[in-house]
Amino acid sequence: MTKKLLIIFAIALLSYSTVSAQVGELRSTFSIGGNAGYVLSNVGFVPKVTQNYHGGNTFGFSMRYTCEKYFATICSVAAEVNYAQLGWKEKILTQQDVPVTIADTDIPMAYQRNINYVQVPVMAHLAWGRETKGVNGFINLGPQFGAYLNDSYDSNFDIRDESAYKLSERACKTIVQDTMRIENSFDYGIVAGAGIEFSHPKIGHFLIEGRYYYGLGNIYGDTKKDYFGRSNYGNIVIKATYLFDLFK
Predict the structure, then answer these.
(1) CB 220 within 8 A of CB 177
(2) Which of 121, 124, 150, 185 could cross-link to 15 by cystine, CB 3.0-4.6 Å?
(3) Which residues pair with 45 in a beta bridge?
(4) Dihedral (Cα; 183, 84, 20, 193), 10-degree rounding
């Protein structure tokens, strides 16, 4: 736990120092706006749980402070407060890699957990290209923190009845996660992304970005007495953001 927090602190310090060196052309532009996108998420369980990606929405408030231009690099600090729908979707297969079906039907067994969070990424935003009118490319890097809100599940079989799982037919027999409550309400990790931005002085900034989040925390306990040694998030995010300059 201490090592993970030190990694987060180092990333945050690097992000801050990258954009606050103040050796280039000074800027003081504060921009605010909103963002929306789609999240593909899974959970890295150990022991392994075979999965497909869980799909969900994300949206929230965005802000950015541009502090300098260092040679060709436009340096900013970006932060967001987002609502995000995360979780996992199980891939229930037999040893022959075909879906396990429910009862005596041809309907594949299905289970997914839907977990809702408030997420706060704080990132170094580095851009190259047009600053106020035109197109630039950018990268984002920094820590992200999340607070658990609630969760639910979707299933076409009775998860309270172990016989309904048809364990003798399954390739992956790990099922305890289906009925376990989320134990850790605080999530943290590292986020990195890249995208393009179109800017115009009269209408603002439009950004399209692809982003990946790697969780350093676990949703379940990870001590020797716990079932899972690891249960961290991996998220792929595609999002669009609109910003307008509040002051320059």
Answers:
(1) yes
(2) 124
(3) 231
(4) 110
Element (H, E) at 6: helix 2-19
What distance in Å separates the CA atoms of residue 245 and residue 60, rounded to the nearest whole number? 17
CB 158 within 8 A of CB 105: no
Joined together, the tokens standing for residue 81 give: 């407060």
**Alpha-carbon span 160 to 54, nearest angstrom:** 22
User: Residue 192's Cα: distance from chain center in Å?
Assistant: 10
Retrieve residue 57's tokens. 């929405």
Distances (CA, A) of 98 to 17, 93, 104, 159, 195: 51, 5, 15, 21, 38
**Residue 5: helix, strand or coil by DSSP?**
helix
Residue 58 makes CB contacts below 8 A (sequence gap 6+) with 35, 36, 37, 38, 39, 82, 83, 84, 85, 119, 237, 239
Q: What is the pLDDT of residues 103-155, one digit of tens each?
A: 888 999 999 999 999 999 999 999 999 888 899 999 999 999 999 999 999 99
Predicted confidence (pLDDT) per residue in 169-190, tens digit: 999 999 999 999 999 999 999 9
State both tokens at 9: 């602190």
For 225, phi and psi rounded to 5 degrees?
A: -85, -10
Residue type, 191: V
